[in-house]
Amino acid sequence: MERLIDPSSQFPRKLSEHIWLLGNYYVNLFLVKGENASALIEVGVSAVTDLVIEQLKELNVSPDHFVVTHPHADHLTGLPGFKDHYPDAGWICAEGAPEFISHPKALPAFINDDRFMHQALTDLGHIPIRPPIEAIKLGAPERVISENTTMDLGAVHLNYILATGHSPGSLIVHIPEHRAVIASDSLGFHFNGRCFLPLYFTNYQSFVSTLELIRSLKPAILGLGHQSPFVGPVAEKALELAWQATLDLYARIRDDERDDKTLAEVLFLENYRDEFTIYTPDNIRNCCQLLVKRSRSA
Description:
CATH topology: Metallo-beta-lactamase, Chain A
Helix content: 25-40%
Structural class: alpha/beta
Number of domains: 1
CATH class: Alpha Beta
Radius of gyration: 18 Å
């Protein structure tokens, strides 16, 4: 399969009058700058925090808002560093995210995953400045989104849309003025030049419904948390590939007569390579187990 994006692209990169891509190839963040305020959608991991702060300085922007798309380590552990550097900025999340973050079992997992990704990115040549996190101290969110709502940044709007299927407390962000959708992991994980792996960790049908919604918005700019964005006609192509991958994986799991554990290990061995190796093997094994479980209980 052809590569949908160029892995050698420069960061930061202007995508439209109000939208910039920040971070690096493996961890994507999106700055939306209006006339009155700015928001950083996605906060990544601690290993990219200082890189993104330098990119923001290059653009002469201090964000007013940080948007946590969902409470998984690779979309959360960069926030403590951002909050330290921009103490007056608030953070925004969906209903359910604060409870997930504060669960007693969550912190050790966040710390372990962040440490692993820190080393993995180092090994790939993306050398972090700060060490991995040892705690997550965020304070109360500025806003918890409990229903679809709109934020006016001045000449550009963020439509916060509750997204279900991938994780608890999940958001996608629609920017109508630029036909842009920041979809985070709602298309699955993008292996550039290979495939998409669907990520319906909480509910298959809800994941499909979210995909249908994103397709209906017909984005010209489509941003994920990793190995993106897709701009122009390639956005439609990415959506179609993600859609077909979701239907195919579900059918495959439903039709496979092997037991859950065996099939999950087969999926792990097929997929734990390329961009997925920035995550711990245990994390990806758990992901594959959830995919089997959600498919067979749908």
